[in-house]
Protein 1
Amino acid sequence: MKPFRFLVLCLAFLTGVKGNDNPVTCDPNVHIVGGTLTKSNGNEVNSVLKFECPDTQYPFPVSSAKCSKSGHWFRSFHRNITPTCKAFRCPVPVLEDGMFLPVNNSYEINETITFECYDAYELHGSVSRICMKNGRWNGTTTVCNSGSQHCPHPGIPPGGRKSGTSYGIGDKVEYACNGGLVLVGSSKRECLESKEWTGSEPNCQHKSSFDSPEEVAAAFTASFTNLLGMTRTGDAKNSDTTARKIILSKDAPLHVYILLDASESVGEEYFSEAKNVAENLIDKIASFDVWPRFGVISYASDPVVIANLYDDNESSADDAIGLLRKATYEIHGDGRGTNIYAALKKVFETMVLTKVQFKDSWDKIRFVTVLFTDGKANMGGNPKAAVQDIKDFVNAQNKSEDYLDMYAFGVSDDVYMPELNDLASQKPNERHCFKIQNTSELVKSFDAILDFTTIGDLCGVADETPDAAGRNQYPWHTLVEMVGTGKCRGSIVSPSWVMTAAHCLTDGKNEVDINMISVNVGIKNKSFKVKQKHLHPLFDLGAMLSENINQFYDYDVALLELTKPINFSETNSRSICLPCTRETTRAIRRKFPGTSCKDHELEMLPTPGPVQADFVRHVGLVESMVPVTIKTSEGQRKACEANALQAPEYKNVSHVHLVVTDRFLCTGGHEPVVEKVSCKGDSGGALFIQKKRRYIQVGVLSWGVINSCDNVALKEKYARDFHINLFKVLPWLKMIIGKIITFIN
Ligand SMILES: *[C@@H]1O[C@H](CO)[C@@H](O)[C@H](O)[C@H]1NC(C)=O
Ligand SMILES: *[C@@H]1O[C@H](CO)[C@@H](O)[C@H](O)[C@H]1NC(C)=O
Ligand SMILES: *[C@@H]1O[C@H](CO)[C@@H](O)[C@H](O)[C@H]1NC(C)=O
Ligand SMILES: *[C@@H]1O[C@H](CO)[C@@H](O)[C@H](O)[C@H]1NC(C)=O
Ligand SMILES: *[C@@H]1O[C@H](CO)[C@@H](O)[C@H](O)[C@H]1NC(C)=O
Ligand SMILES: *[C@@H]1O[C@H](CO)[C@@H](O)[C@H](O)[C@H]1NC(C)=O
Ligand SMILES: *[C@@H]1O[C@H](CO)[C@@H](O)[C@H](O)[C@H]1NC(C)=O
Ligand SMILES: *[C@@H]1O[C@H](CO)[C@@H](O)[C@H](O)[C@H]1NC(C)=O
Ligand SMILES: *[C@@H]1O[C@H](CO)[C@@H](O)[C@H](O)[C@H]1NC(C)=O
């Protein structure tokens, strides 16, 4: 060893001498026409030069260069070309058995092209496409299909070519892209018996083009909701995506591995942004109707496990997020290579371990990997081999492709798409591989993904963006109108069921005829009729007449069954979550099974409070969400309840507990802050709290001490509201809607 080391030192010494004699530097005057540049280390050897161009342009002939030992920024074949920012142009489409207009050898941004198929051929994909600012056509590849072969025509991407013209079972087609374009998607596809092609649609992209945050969000959301087996409401942008064959059932286990790049080139700042993006992703996935476990790995020369998927104390969304927040860029020390292979190998090893640990649910587990990288793997072997290990392992378990989704996000211009493409899944009509310009674009992309206000039918979800207003903030809120006699409010608890106050439906002697009830939902105030009403059997307005109490509101709760279910997407409405249900257990991210109704109560109505809550108030025609606090500590609750005797109807009542039973929650007053109180007609509305971005109803507004809700009421310390506590009427709720909503014990 010694002599060898000596030799190395000698060589270093020699080159050092040579360097001092004749210092090599690169041309300091290099520039780019129409753009800007940055250099990592001035004009020294190995300094890296990066060109930047405006949004709709790319640097030509190269986007980056390194100062070579011979003192040149560019390789010989680029030396005579002045670096210039060139506008992206879209490649020429290829359409067999049809035509398109206009015809040209490339197209400018904003140019539109329209397609037509010859007689007897049917057009699939986009009829017209517009050239987007990143040099890609919007929409999907246009195909003319005759229907005469087993599989449909597989299409040819603009800027590409196809070999193979037979589309029978087992026939293959191959794709390549024209010069300067790189292929993303599957380069080979095979016609299956099911009349589908294997893999995903190929695309030919300009090597310098990026996915916009909108494209990333739309494509990732489409693929991920497909994986979750969910329907998208609102403006479903990619409604033509085919659904997966195997639908993820509610409660299905989902194992999500997130891999973060911490190599030298990403730097500390990127790493911390990537952590935020990962947290955002975990938070969103955990909001859906699945039971995910998370594994988080950061990698540089070596992988470091931040949250271990097979540890119960690390793999829940909250635990993984906690661990992720604590992880620092420093954990990788000086080993700052980009070893994607080792990171994926770690995923593979964890998967093998989980097979032992989760053998009971093994058949149902779906795997998702989300890889973030800023460039090429530069050590540790070809990551493709580790991907193959993972694929082989999942296949060997007799799991279909539907059980594994591998997403790859490349952030920066250094990302080479064909390489990244190999690390992602290829599935029909879905995208798993993305190239994003910089971290701020990555953050934007993830802010826009998996917007659960437009996905699925989760309870207790509301639009919380800053410009959300009215019913979008509380989409479960309804008007319950007793035509000709009065108005109350209610809350949607399932598509066919609305909860309200029992006193709205009776005057103590006669109950309202169901034909006279109309329930109005959503921002368009769509009206529904009622099929059945269920007042709590213990509700009896006149039960205390012998005590000279004319109105007694214990058990003031009722459920209405509608004649037809509310279409949530059509009416822009949704259900609110109810306590002690399975769905709410999931919403608050507690274990199922393993979480009791008592756990829900401790979490939602903790003592000592006060507990932050809201209800919806109506002042004239103006409807708004109003914050209040529920008094849960004994002292505050007693003070709150004592004010019940200030109500005009209760002036002669000898003891407050004659009118305020254990079933009530108390809000309002001046402690700890001055709170607004309900108005006439607010009765029946929900008192709700928020947990993990989800809303859960804990009470039904029954009555208030003061018969007004204006500023006069604000001045009165004894202005209080009383709500029926849903935790106290669970057996009845279970009896009426237990078949529709799963309650826990
Ligand atoms: C092709 O595009 C160029 C540049 O946009 C344009 O000048 C030319 O007229 C087009 N040719 C045809 C045939 O439309
Ligand atoms: C394309 O059209 C949009 C909207 O019409 C416009 O804002 C943009 O400047 C156009 N881009 C180019 C490169 O012509
Ligand atoms: C492509 O863009 C045009 C213009 O913005 C739009 O009208 C069209 O619907 C888009 N097509 C698809 C498939 O998104
Ligand atoms: C989780 O439990 C494992 C042992 O099963 C332990 O090694 C690990 O440190 C724990 N992690 C945390 C974050 O407490
Ligand atoms: C997969 O299925 C084949 C044939 O049905 C069976 O022989 C094999 O044991 C199965 N493998 C596993 C891991 O379940
Ligand atoms: C990231 O890219 C976008 C889109 O080109 C650009 O507008 C933005 O300034 C870039 N941000 C940074 C921090 O470079
Ligand atoms: C909703 O419609 C009902 C009648 O169906 C009406 O009484 C009520 O005022 C309407 N509410 C709003 C907010 O438009
Ligand atoms: C619900 O409404 C949406 C949007 O109007 C519609 O596409 C869908 O078919 C409706 N669903 C049902 C079950 O009626
Ligand atoms: C309270 O008692 C007085 C005197 O008996 C009676 O006049 C009044 O009507 C009672 N008020 C109520 C609300 O019952």
Protein 2
Amino acid sequence: MDEEYDVIVLGTGLTECILSGLLSVEGKKVLHMDRNDYYGGESASLNLTQLYRKFRPGQEPPSTFGRDRDWNVDLIPKFAMASGEFTNILYHTDVTRYLEFRQIAGSYVYRDARISKVPSNNTEAVSSPLMGIFEKRRAKKFFEFIQAYDFTNPATHQGLDLNTVPMTEVYKKFGLETGTQDFLGHALALHLDDAYLTQPAKETYERICLYMNSMARYGKSPYIYPLYGLGELPQGFARLSAIYGGTYMLSKKIDEVVYENGKVVGVKSEGETAKTKAVIGDPTYFSDKVKKAGQVVRAICILNHSIPNTADADSLQIVIPQNQVNRSHDIYVAAVSYAHNVSAKDYWVAIVSTLVETAKPEEELQPALALLGPIAEKFVDITDLYEPTTDGKAEGVFVTKSYDATSHFETVCQDVKDVYKRVTGNELKVENMVKKQEEGGAAE
Ligand SMILES: *[C@@H]1O[C@H](CO)[C@@H](O)[C@H](O)[C@H]1NC(C)=O
Ligand SMILES: *[C@@H]1O[C@H](CO)[C@@H](O)[C@H](O)[C@H]1NC(C)=O
Ligand SMILES: *[C@@H]1O[C@H](CO)[C@@H](O)[C@H](O)[C@H]1NC(C)=O
Ligand SMILES: *[C@@H]1O[C@H](CO)[C@@H](O)[C@H](O)[C@H]1NC(C)=O
Ligand SMILES: *[C@@H]1O[C@H](CO)[C@@H](O)[C@H](O)[C@H]1NC(C)=O
């Protein structure tokens, strides 16, 4: 510990672990510390004993839930797009050698008070119960347009230059209903709100292509998830880091971050100071450098049956677009089961989350909870969201963001890329593992 490091990372949440993994692989000397005696911080996976200790102090888990060791319940569940940036980073760092991924069995969206599979191409659009007969034809034409679009070939543009026209114009051209726009924008393009409608359509086009490419990879859904839960990721990164000479330390109380002339020079823990020029940390280590940016409400629900109307799916995501339930933020459901070794046999864990909008957060989850059928046990958690107040360059202290309500890794990836750039001064470049639809020089 009495040494000099290129970077010291505080907290073993997913974002910090990915960053420390990327920097280790690049040859940086990394020291990674956590005040807790377990990996994962706010994004840990807990066994049944730990789960009850956190939410029902003094109460034992019921014996019907089976063996403790069969449970790995994520506090913040997230699915990875099979062809997305997060998956690219996993391959790039080679952390995949310690993890086994399985596909998520379904991707659903809520429209007019019921759920249906998200259609992801022209053939699926035609058979989707989400739309009426005429709307299906319009959606089919929209998907054909997206699949054929080539930035270098104006003949494929149908008069729409996606670099400049806003997404509303594209929807208008195909005459798509607002309910159809809801599922395209929120369940395929994974936008968090409707601000995208007035932005150039290119980003939405790229996000829809990513969904389609990811879907094409395994067939049932665009998402993948590690066996034994997300808690496997920090541990995978810790093992990886060791290979590159990095050091991971749990149960390390952080006394102080040491500065000289306004620049960070080290981190003091249990009387010893490790020297460094850069510190990365989660918001819980830097309460003086973050501001509150809202709250997330999450309900962890244990079920002894699959979710109704999902053909007995062993795992799935449901997106409830904000407009469908008269809200300003989407509601997400991420459900996994014994098929991913996160629960005892014949149990499902469904985690429902959204950004808090009212004084009664738990009631805001009701439209999603109502989809789950009988709930054997429910743990509700309301957490504050924090984001850094500065880019950290002046002091050399780079703070990550809290995890938002989404049930996918897209926003975590954005934060990873953002912090990486602030720390190194360079854009994060990872090889694209899957050939994406090329768009001739227009990229980046
Ligand atoms: C569950 O977590 C507790 C507390 O960390 C730990 O003591 C116990 O060994 C764990 N159980 C299993 C089966 O891993
Ligand atoms: C549409 O998607 C489904 C499911 O991924 C796939 O089986 C089918 O081949 C796709 N059809 C076309 C035309 O891409
Ligand atoms: C949606 O919310 C608005 C404003 O809060 C309210 O006026 C309207 O009645 C609500 N509509 C539904 C269907 O709940
Ligand atoms: C993981 O789950 C599979 C079935 O989904 C099961 O066959 C296997 O025994 C489980 N592994 C452990 C270690 O529980
Ligand atoms: C399933 O859970 C419900 C509560 O949600 C409970 O009443 C029922 O007895 C459970 N069934 C089994 C087979 O464990």
